[in-house]
Hints:
This protein is of the alpha/beta class and 248 residues long. The chain has helices at 16-19, 23-40, 52-61, 81-93, 105-109, 113-129, 145-162, 165-168, 192-202, 216-225, 235-247, and strands spanning 8-12, 44-47, 67-72, 98-102, 133-137, 171-174, 207-210, 229-232. It is 50% helix and 15% strand. It has an 8-stranded parallel β-barrel, surrounded by 7 helices.
Amino acid sequence: MKNVGSLLDSTYLKTVEQAGITEPENQQVVIKLVQEAIKFKFKLIMIRPNYVSMARKTLDEIDSTVLVGTVIGFPSGTSNIESKIAEAKKAIKDGVDELDFVIDYRAYQQGYLDQVEESVKQCTSLCLKHGKVTKWIIEIAALSDEEIAGISKMIKEVVLSNFSSTDAQQVFVKSSTGFYKREDGGPVGATLSGLKIMIDHAAPLPVKAAGGVKNLADVKKMVELGVSRIGTSSAKQIVLEETTIIKY
Length: 248
């Protein structure tokens, strides 16, 4: 496995209410995330849209190669196409590199397939037009195995039908928001079984694992499975774990 940091999207997506801190304090958390990403050579930082401009400026000031990513329609995915497009355009204007859209998986479950497909088509088109990577979060904890397979295949078919094979490599299928709560107490993030279904049905589109990835062992298993990127709030700990293993 190549340098683990280059596979990681270091993630902080809490609002001030969720974090229980003030807005200036939350901004400082984001700045610290940026600094850690630079130090540990992470692929990308994944933050809320309102912090994209600040992060972009900080990274550009030192000519860093760390990318800036944000979430769209987060975390429910139920916002309409127009809202997602408007949110994405603002993030692109603010200097984002990658956009992780939450797909309207509830609409998919209810059979509104044309609506979901059109959203994937329009939002992906906007991102590719501006040279941005697109990721579609399908929220596997809310889906059955059959639904995971079906929605992964649907995204693949929309992308391959409307964009080139080269462009398709810039469109990921992503497992989870990390914010979904299951009533039965089951796993709410990336699972190996769920990721396997995604990979089998989304290929040749790349797959990103996110939600509950906490250690190097998890990362290695997911990469061996065929995952291309990992989103995690434990990026620093994972890289330090790798460094310790190499050292000893």
